[in-house]
Amino acid sequence: MTDTVHIDDLAHPTFTPEVAEMLAGMGAMAAECPLDARRMHAQAIEETGLTDFGPRDYEERLDVLLTALREVDPVTPAGRVVFFAQLVQLLKNRLLLTDLLTRHPEIHEIELAPPIVIAGLPRTGTTHLHNLLAADPGLRSLPYWESLEPVPKPSEAGVDPDPRRARTDAAVWFMNEAMPLLPRMHEMTTDHVHEEIQLLAVDFSTMFFETLAPVPAWRAYYGSHDQAPHYRYLRTMLQALQFTRGGNRWVLKSPQHLEQLPVLSSVFPDATTVVTHRDPVDVVVSMATMIAYAARMYTDRVDAPGLGRYWADRIDDLLTACVRDHHVLDPARSVDVRFDDFMADEVGTVRSVYDRAGQPLDARARESIDGYLAAHQRGRLGTIDYRPEDVGLDVAELRERFAPYVARFL
Question: Prior bond to 161 cis, omega within 30?
Fold first, then answer.
């Protein structure tokens, strides 16, 4: 029988004494970690020894984001340190990428094979499908450790084992200690295949920041700007990653793409796009629950109903955009995957994607995919008892709200 747990401390998180002590230690550093752009830039420069951040247009976006994060309330001292560290890391990544491109301008000439891009809401099977495709050694994917630090420091280039992996090991260990139920919702390991949304964050224009905390001002700013320049930045980052670690055809995935299908199609015109679909009511409840659970990393008083409303609205945005823009996808290079069909025939779903992408499902690929399936049975880490009332959601209202999407795709 699958072990199922109901999260009963969403509003007032509890921690083990060991984790509470670590969070208190982090909080003691809060005075040195202000949500201030000048201080963050100085920290990134100090830690890398580099000074060129590339085009400075990102500074306005960073300022808007910092203003939005400063409005989040309440935030624990440890939470401020978490925000500070994440944004400094993005600035460091930007410095390192600019330096790499300056030393190796030929990166801009690297040809990208037509990628396979998964666009779908969280909790619709995107992660599982992403991992199945990434198991194929013939495809290039982004492991979690590389997403956090995509470009190595010059002093660490070629070092084996890669120091970036050890740093990610430590981060994953702490994450699992502080949020032991997270693997039941979304397993994260050092080598876990991750989303390129983390790369888009290096250009400070992505919905990724909304997963850190509710930031409506940022959401409005992001939604009012053309994202094509930032998808082109992503394309450059993929070229840089091919330069540093090889690979050819990328398999990518992000829910953000649902509201950026025209941009995705213009920047990656030869991509094969896989759009996943599932009952959005289940998606909203589980997504909001996961976000509310993760909120304990920055606050000790979680507004779970507020997060439920925020993410119901946000998912509505994504689905509305998908209904509106789905027609831009070339039917010859796109496929819609329904969750129940995928769960009923995982390998068949992979085969349909490969057929549309012109990717050979050869014996080596099939063996790797079968091996992944054997080792990653659904629910093997236990499951969560998701309850809409925990995040202030009404199922009947959600069903009415999402009816246009359901009528179109389910």
Answer: yes
